[in-house]
Design brief:
5 helices, homodimer, DNA-binding, alpha+beta, 125 residues, 5 strands, three-stranded mixed sheet
Chain lengths: 125, 125
DNA sequence: TTAGGTGCAAAACCTTTGCCATCCC
DNA sequence: GGGATGGCAAAGGTTTTGCACCTAA
């Protein structure tokens, strides 16, 4: 991965904030420094930085919305190869929400736990 | 919420699968029964069913991708009012990944835990 | 020198919306 | 009847991509 001023500026913006900004927010910040940078470049660099492990990404939007008719709370496993989502039969830890509420002062209504890895089918192929 | 054959068909499809289908997959399934249903109707009904609590939705794509330069693993809290994402200072449970791997036969690389609720700022306003 | 990066604009993609006809209560 | 819902198509918003030019190594 080549070092460019665009990439450095993007990483600089990301490291200087504790918020978890969107691509568009980053774009607007970086433009203060490099006014003619393009949004495409921001996306390309975010992807490169993500792939090289320098940044983490939450809720990659390429992942489509998925729906589920199950009523009870349960956890999920998402295969990183085929993107399929499976239910996981693990008891839901309700106690942890209260602990986080105490710690943060936030109202914690529920949590979502998703495991990531490779499903059995994709291990074979 | 009014009862229509489109809504029933969508719910039927959702209840008959253990996969966690995308809107488009549901649309194609429902078309076998109601060939001229429109994708807009599928989305509208999924939203209605979601709001009434009859189905759950994973990764609502309205949520933009968000990026984070922190290197260490950590958990997040997402405010359901302002959509901001905060870091949570809770130790990461590494042992659970092995347990799920044993249980499922999947390769579990990591997990993501996100709490949901209302942040302090949004409680005041 | 040259593979990789940039800017720009267009395309792709998923989701929502406006409009009017239709259906359920 | 009248408000909720459906079908269609167009719009909306985010992300990706093609292409010609540039630049770091």
């Amino acid at each position: 991965m080549r070092k460019t001023k665009q990439k450095e500026a993007i990483l600089g913006v990301l490291r200087s904030t504790i918020s978890h900004p969107t691509a568009d927010w980053i774009y607007n910040e970086v433009r203060k420094e490099i006014p003619n940078i393009s949004l495409g470049t921001v996306y390309r660099n975010l992807r490169l930085l993500y792939q090289s492990g320098e940044i983490a990404e939450l809720d990659m939007c390429g992942t489509l919305s998925r729906f589920d008719a199950r009523q009870d709370e349960h956890y999920h496993f998402r295969c990183e190869k085929c993107s399929q989502v499976f239910d996981v039969d693990e008891p839901v830890n309700k106690e942890i929400d209260g602990r986080i509420a105490l710690k943060t002062g936030f109202v914690v209504e529920y949590h979502r736990l998703e495991f990531r890895g490779v499903c059995r089918k994709c291990q074979d192929s």
